Amino acid sequence: MMLVKNLRQEVPECLAAGVVDMATGMLLSVDTVDSHPPEVLDLLAAATLDLFQGRTVVMIEDVFKERRGVTSDQHYFQEILVNSENLTHLFLRNNTHEDIVAVVVCRRSVNVGMLFAQARRVMKEQGEY
Description:
The chain is an alpha+beta fold. Helix content is about 40%, strand content about 25%. The protein has a single domain, classed as Beta-Lactamase, CATH 3.30.450.30. A five-stranded antiparallel beta sheet has the order 2-1-5-4-3, sandwiched between helices. Helix 1 packs antiparallel against helix 4 and helix 2 packs parallel to helix 3. The model has no long low-confidence stretch (mean pLDDT about 90).
């Protein structure tokens, strides 16, 4: 898949990239420097779904929309950054297909500004995914 390949090549210090379909909860594609057991990759897809569309997250989105008078069905959260002990994980919702979320995993030493800039650029260039 071209999006995953481009993220891996163009995002600084990228160790892995993947694409999750939020409608099905499935990992559509992954490219990583390490091999991972299938169950770990399945858990990544499930965790991504929980991060963006878990019950509590949807409740928060609904409250924000209500308070701001927003009536669209568009999701409120578009990007989520998670730092673990050694890694930085960036989750980005596709602007044209909200059910598609890209996941980029980098070394913790990554320049976060460059991570966002390059990942957003690749996502924008891919457009229609």
